[in-house]
Amino acid sequence: MTRLILVGVSHHRAPIELRERVALDPERSAALAAHLGQEAVVLSTCNRTELYLARPDDAEELAVATLTDLAGDRAEELGAVLYRLSDEAAALHLFRVAAGLDSLVPGEGEILGQVRGAFEAGSTGPFLDRLFRQALHAGRRVRVETAIGESPASVPAAGAALAQQVFENLSGKRILLLGAGKMSELTARNLVSRGAQIGAVANRTLEHAQVLADSFGARALGLDELREELAIADVVVASTSSSEPILRKADVAAALRSRKGRPLLLVDLAVPRDLDPAINDLESCFLYDVDDLEAVVAETITGRRSEAARAEQLVASEGERFRRWQASLDVVPTIASLRALVEEIRDSELERAGSRLSETERKHVESVTSQIVAKLLHLPTIRMKEAAAAADGVVYADVVRHLFGLGEEERRV
Amino acid sequence: MSELLVVPALLAYGEAALAYAGELRGPGLAGRLATWGVRLGWLAQTALLVGQATSADGFPWGTWAGALNLFVWLVVGAYLIWGCRPRYRLLGLAVMPVAAFLLALAWAGGGTGLDQGDDSGLVLAIHVGLMLAGFASLTLSAGMAGLYVWQERRLKRHVRRVLRVRVPPLDALDRLAARGVLAGLGLLALGIGAGAARFERGDVDAAMVVTLAILAVYATLLVLRHEGWRGRRAALLNLCGFALVAVVLPLTHFAQ
Predict the structure, then answer these.
(1) Count of structural domains within chain A
(2) Which stretches in chain B have pLDDT values below 50?
(3) What ipTM did this prediction achieve?
(4) Same domain, B247 and B209
């Protein structure tokens, strides 16, 4: 009987120093899976390295030895953080991983692609093929049927998500960056990844603005040249180190006159704040400071956790489906033997009767006997698979083998 | 027998209205159930209207209750164009309770029965049909304006749950509301044109005056929008126009 073995380390217990030692890039993961032979998959991300093996023999020690080799001089630390799971528990773990439920931020979407990559690069056979396809299905189901992956989990992502609440399509929307700091760059990159374009980067030191502007193909401005850009920007992202507000209500109000009612989203990531809070009172202006964004992120992470409870139920149902399939494997050889025996009897009887039948009669009898066999075996097949799922499969299989003398020929030989 | 189709239509609209309330807690099964409720209800109502059209001698929706029946069908049909998209589902929270209530009212008023109709002629049928389609478009537009005002307020107040409830982007609501007004105005103008063919001196009544006022308010809205009156102000003006459609027009029309 094929057993599923999972051995791995993850961010839950292993420090980054150990995780980076056992981490593998996709090429090395594929090479290791090929080295481990049929059936093996190596899933390696920044948060985990896991080996999935499906073998008739006990492959746990092989998996542990492989990870120990990878850990090198830190192998001694491995024992305390290594986890070993088998069969149903291992499958359920993979389904949780694919659904993003085992990730640092619940529901993060990148992991599903990583699981797919590991599956495609693995050395799979029927068992792991079924397991990983079902894991991908579970991951997709969780993302479609729950809202776990929809809300942003960081301040820059929250800024971008808010922009999508205001604008129908970020494609072609113009961003004005105030300050050339890391946070504004991250937020800008998040917006750019959703189709927006950086129109200008404004900074007290023009040279710093120029460096960031060049990386986005935007123009660099001094902080005293904002009026013209404010009239055409759709989103303003501010994160300068200025101790005084860079933009006051009057500045924005003046720019609004030429905007013809187009909305303006302002994201202030600076402390002290760069943008006068009174700007939010202006019509069609939506100003969010870092506290507002953090509150939105905290709320959405709470939402992700509550969605995670629903996602766990979906994953559990997928786990149960896999368990039933795996259990049915216990009775598959018996069912196959029974069908083979019945077919053998049918063939020999048809052969004996063959000389007494015309071609038409023979075809008719073949068709009738084939239908009788299919109907007779249908219910026992279903019942045996059901019994296998309820853990009685081996007993049923033994009874059927005994009653029909399955395998006795082989034993006699 | 087909008269009974109003029952499944009403049940499906009612189910959709309740399920949309569930969608407020977060996207998921409730939203999908609501969408199916709208679809099935609209199909049942379509079958009912077909039954009415084939069994009636003349125009089957000439009475106030019959007109209400047709109006609900037009509103829900137009909503289905957007309502099937997950992000626009919440618009159903504004549309479906009203649709269910109005259909129940039409049923109570005898507007869903068969073998009824008047022989006022094709021109009146076209006039009523176009006017109802125009008002249906304005109703949907008002729904979007209402959603705009609600979502804009949430964004302004920095509501923490702002990203947890799926609402169409403000930009899209503003644009679709304006399109709804434009379509509504066009249909109303055509309907008035069709009605004018039967118009005689001395026929002027309060409902006509209110209809022209509605036309003027919405035309003003479009002109002002072109001049930069977008967003909240446009949405509020849209809702004012809809108050004329929903409250003043029926009062003046049925008071006669």
Answers:
(1) 3
(2) none
(3) 0.80
(4) yes
